What does this fold into?
Amino acid sequence: MTDKKVRTADGSITFHSEQYDEHYHSTSGALTEAHKKYAEVCKIYDRKEVDILDICFGLGYNSAAAIDRFEGKSIRIVGLEIYEGIIKQIEMMGHEYPFECFNIMLEVAKKGIYKGPVDTRKVDFMRKEGEADVKLIMGDARETIKTLPDRSFDCAFHDPFSPKKNPELWTKEFFDEVFRVLRKGGMVATYSCARIVRDNFKAAGFTVKDSPPVGRRAPGTIAIKP
It folds into this structure.
């Protein structure tokens, strides 16, 4: 199975998934979406240090958007991803990777991978002062998230394929796990504003708000742990 490379409206590259028949990112601009719907929504750039859970890591764009404007600060990212072919896609992008931290992502693709489920007692998830520490756990996010410690993250980027195509990652049960691993006041950013998505966030205990629309009229969603 080969996913097709697509150039989005802001010039950045995404891919079209043959399995899900959807693009990895908004075709209105993959780079723009990563900044506007994820990193900025979670107020990443206002922090001195941050711990991020990147659900459906993909090409790493959302994490890269956080890293590129977090220079000299402490950032820790744990990515969850099921598609092992994504590693080769990251390696092959080279100069087409739309963020400056390509070398960090390449290092993750080559060395920073753990096959899940992971015993987190054996993995160093400590934030490194003044550095970007990124680790990628491969496997079904419904299982790998269960291995992560309680109250470990300040925010989560939630970026699966749509609720229609990838419903298992938009359930109340999955959001229960996201709630568990976030600290008090922790935020989840996602592009979907579907009613079922918001209802499931609320059922898991989150307070739900709109995030700014990017490339379409409908807003995204911010879910906040009280």
Observations:
- The chain has one domain: 29-224.
- The helical segments are 30-39, 61-68, 85-93, 102-111, 141-144, 172-181, 195-203.
- Residues 85 and 225 are 33 Å apart (CA to CA).
